[in-house]
Design goal:
alpha+beta, Aminopeptidase, eight-stranded mixed sheet, globular
Length: about 140
């Protein structure tokens, strides 16, 4: 599939062996009639203040931490962005608090490297970047089928 500039339609679905990643829907908040569970959110912000590079952000509910879901979801979304979206330099960045060692390890396992350190929101932050695909804002709900 050719690379396209954002805004581009978020793909209908991205999958990993355990997750379905798809656009957030209003029913995600209200729908109790399904066995699928929304376990978090991965978003990609194009054209950020971070050197015109796409920025990925992620949040998972605490009960899903430490199970590998964040790595699966973030890795899949980052790979999709690097393969299909034209946003300035072909790179994706992620920023996390310096104290968030779990998030930092996740980004490092994905092959991201530290490119900057700064203080924001009164806390030390670390910016990571990757420029090759790992082995509005666009958001996807991470759904555990």
């Amino acid at each position: 599939m050719p690379r396209s500039p954002l805004p581009a339609p978020w793909p209908t679905r991205l999958t990993t062996p355990r997750l379905l990643l798809r656009p957030v829907e209003a029913a995600d908040v209200k729908d109790k009639n399904t066995d699928a569970a929304v376990i978090g959110l991965v978003s990609v912000e194009p054209d950020t203040r971070r050197g015109n590079r796409a920025e990925v952000s992620y949040q998972l509910l605490p009960e899903y931490w430490g199970l590998g879901y964040a790595g699966e979801a973030v890795g899949r979304v980052v790979a999709w962005v690097l393969d299909h979206v034209d946003v300035g330099p072909p790179a994706v960045v992620a920023v996390t608090q310096e104290a968030n060692t779990r998030s930092r390890r996740l980004l490092e396992r994905m092959g991201m490297g530290v490119v900057d350190r700064f203080v924001e929101f009164d806390a030390p932050q670390v910016m990571y970047s990757i420029s090759i695909a790992p082995a509005s804002s666009w958001s996807a709900a991470a759904v555990h089928p």
